[in-house]
Amino acid sequence: MMIKLIRCVVFLFIVLVNRQANTFASMPARNPFSQADGRSVDGEAAQRQTVRGEVVDGDTGQSIPARVYIQDEEGGWHHVVSTAVDGSAVRYEKRNWVNPKSEEFHTTVSAHPFEARLTSGRYQLMVERGKEYVPFTRTLAVRESPVSIKVPLKRWVNLAERGWFSGDTHVHRPLSDLPNIMLAEDLNVTFPLTYWVTHAFKSPSAGDKSVQGDVPDALIKVDDTHVIWPRNTEWEIFTVGSRSHTLGAVFALGHRDPFQLGVPTVKQVAAEAHRQGALLDLDKHDWPWTMTLPPNMGVDLYELANNHIWRTEFAFTNWSSPTPEYLRPPLKERSGNEREWIQFTLANYYALLNCRQNMVPTAGTANGVHPVPLGFGRVYVNLPGGFSYEAWKQGLAAGRSFVTTGPMVFATVNGRAPGEHFEKIDGPFAARVEGEIISEQPLTFAEIIHNGRSIYTIMGRNERTETGAYRTTFRTELALPESGWLAVRCWEDRAQGRVRYAHTAPWHVSIPGKPLKPLAAERDYLVDRVKIELNRSRDLLPDEAIREYQDALAYYQGLPIREEAPQAPHRAPAEPFGWVGVAGRVKIAPYPGGRHPRIGFLEGALNPQRETKVTVFTPWDPTSYVVVDVPEAIWSNLGLTYLAHTHIDTIWDTRKVTLPQLEWTRHPDGSLTNKRRLPNGIAFGAKVLAHKTHVEMTLWLKNGTDQTLTDLRIQNCVMLKGAVGFNAQSNWNKRLEKPFGMAHSEDGQRWIITAWENCQRTWANPPVPCIHSDPQFDDLAPGATGQLKGWLWFYEGSDIQNTLVELKETYLEGRFDQ
Questions:
Q1: How many Cα atoms within 13 Å fall on the side-chain side of residue 524?
Q2: String of b and e for 659-681 (b: at least 16 CB within 10 Å)?
Q3: Could you say which architecture CATH assigns to the domain 26-153?
Q4: Between the N and C ends of the chain, which has fewer C-beta atoms within 10 Å?
Q5: pLDDT digit string (tens) for 345-390?
């Protein structure tokens, strides 16, 4: 309790300090040249030269507003000023209190020339404008003469031309600064939280963080397509009475009159908000009371791109609530990296949708508090009839939208935009899902989500557009047997393991007699969240507030759950499946089944068979593991001869032949072996033996047919879902150097490495995620047997290159095809 109290006090203090956005001096920061912390030099009285600049549209040559960064070789940040009488420049200086490397120091400038006074040296100039322009980077050498530079920003996509307009629904900037910033970010709509209260029961109209003075009661038009609605409220509760007791946050966006109501209770606030035409926005998804709010308030919006997702480094790795046990990764944790936070955010949203809380996604940055540009995460709303504030707000509420931190996703279901409700469907719903994804950097993959599950994977095609962007198109037809919802989400890898993503609002489908139901695990997770908060707050909150918690609990508990076919592993219930081997060696075990070894691309591996899969535990974490599929597939001149799951047809599927399920055999030396004979006489098997720091694998195949077998290609897959720190659905942490397929931890100090002799191909599949080193047998005459060796190594250290040389010399000399 004392730790929580200290954390809350520190948080409140920092938020209070950070609100003074324009009073900071420049601060030292991370250096793009050397990665070292530097110093601010803006205030030094030294010999300086003038650097003059102007940002122009790369196609028209016209001046445009933008966001400008200047950083010196020692890490100091510098700001610019406008040189035009009617120009403006707004400084922004934020550093996170948890991670000092999470920082945002920039100046937003109007469409006019600007200048900076800099001492001699080298500087990094970076200029950006919102999401639709290619960032500009240039190294400036400042010497004894003034420097002039014209910065052309090129569009890679134009959303307004397509009828899409953007907004940020979580903003903490002064009204006077927003016109400059919105134009610099090309952000069409903002809802600055001018009323802000952190004490329970207190009126936000006199909130401790509310804007002082009168707040305008009418729309502020920056121009015809950039507007501000000034009256918006945040209840962000840290204190109940005289005690520190964090609850969470909820916003009312677009109301007319100041609220006189404090929280809790929340039902009366929701009624008043909706009476005034406001939208309720759910923020702080991991905070204590969050899951009690949707059933009690009829929340409209859910921040799917939220205020922890920044341009700079991810900071909030510790969370207030554990992730649901069914979410892997992360696994029942209160901490994680950026990708895992995004997965947690999505899982919460999906669980709520499945529990019939039909919120639509939105995006909010908390710019003004956090080190993030305004609109870094934003929501785009489709307005085919042109822009107006009223139409934009209505479109947002209806879900005709997508959220993004990078890629742009344009999708339809049966020709209808997101937000459509398909009703009175007779039988299974035939969904034609099609569209395109445009991204600044190559798209990694996209997915179609149905009722929280990825049911169709779209790999990035990445055709180049005329603007230099990357384009992926898709079209598929799906038969949906039950009511629910569909959405499209996509992922774009960035440098240093970062990720950008986009997600459509859902399409809803209603099939009579087939209602939407949550999984038992989803319902239980929400029930547990409410119970924890109910017990934590029972002695602090008034009876009427506790009754609202009890109402939320009753709502979730009363939901019928989706019946699922049991995933019973095909083994005797009493059979032990613990690890095998000898002490001091890598631990291995037959894969127990029941839980899918993949994170994504599940439709490409239905009914995964246990008989070829081995769990290998990492030596540095006894709870972390990979699953090795040996073999995953066997190809030959006959076609696909064996597949360890259901996907594309094998030669046996085409003949309607079902292969029996088999098991691994354990041996006294700790090894595991398997063996299968196919109906045409081909036999194959594998042996897996653990050593101190690696696992040795042997694969053999005997030709029992009367024909020579050729083109005997093998797929051996190492799946990383259960390997903590290695399971990003990305190729950023993969390294492929034939015959080695490798994955490394975020810090690059730990490596999982696989290789096979006679390797023909190394590759990785981000959605799974997995790594491959795929070998090939020599041609086999009738009666002949071939054998291949493979390995799985675990390495800790920084000298990976020399390690690969040693592995090649020790294990693979002369064993692989150069």
A1: 7
A2: beeeebeeeeebbbebebebebe
A3: Sandwich (2.60)
A4: C
A5: 999 999 999 999 999 999 999 999 999 999 999 999 999 999 999 9
